[in-house]
Amino acid sequence: MLAVNDINLSYGASQALWGVSLTAEPGKVTCLMGRNGVGKTSTLRAIVGQQATRSGSITLDGKPVDRMRPFERAREGIAFVPQGREIFPLLTVRENLETGYACLKGAERHVSEELFDLFPVLKSMLGRRGGDLSGGQQQQLAIARALVTRPRVLLLDEPTEGIQPSIIQDIGRVISLLRDRGDMAILLVEQYFEFAKELADTFHVMDRGEIVLSGKADEMDEDDVRAHLTV
Predict the structure, then answer these.
(1) Is the entire prediction scored with pTM above 0.85?
(2) Residue ranges per domain, the chain?
(3) Cα–Cα distance between 2 and 21 in angstroms, integer?
(4) What is the pLDDT of residues 120-134, one digit of tens each?
(5) With bands split at pLDDT 50, 70 and 90, how would you rate the model's confidence at 176?
(6) CATH architecture of 2-87+150-227
(7) Are 211 and 31 in contact (CB under 8 A)?
């Protein structure tokens, strides 16, 4: 289980996170929601080590990871699909997937056929450059690249942003399959409430760098959640 406990994070003199705490458990989707600029991406960046926290703790199965470097956290099993996908446009689909080998031992460095069961379109595009794919296909590639690392925790930062509805459905199906497998914790940052409520087991809602609402999906007041998503 991933446990984030009372973390504070600043960018220079500006504090972005104030005492943020949450957990993500295997076999469940934890959804982090809120308007733009309230600290959702900063929370993910803190978890993967792209931004240092000022205080608090981050643990994986009880093991502290908050002082580890990003590649060390990846080796521990934390994978990140960033907002905007950030695939390598000049590398082929196959080469993009193989960049996930960096945190794996030699015997583990292969692309599982399961990935192509999850994302069939990628198998027919292995030789195409990442930059030639549509936005939805690039998002599928970004998720598949993260899964190459065989993560225990998968962080997804707004995977539906700018994606056509048919691919949003495909991504939702994949998240459901990964959750139901039972061995992976999924932390999903999302603004699209209709997508999130179909997947989430637990909600955390942020405002101004703090978590202001938390609870199991079936206990949350939908109007309260939506009130923190509208501008």
Answers:
(1) yes
(2) 2-87+150-227
(3) 11
(4) 999 999 999 999 999
(5) very high
(6) 3-Layer(aba) Sandwich (3.40)
(7) no
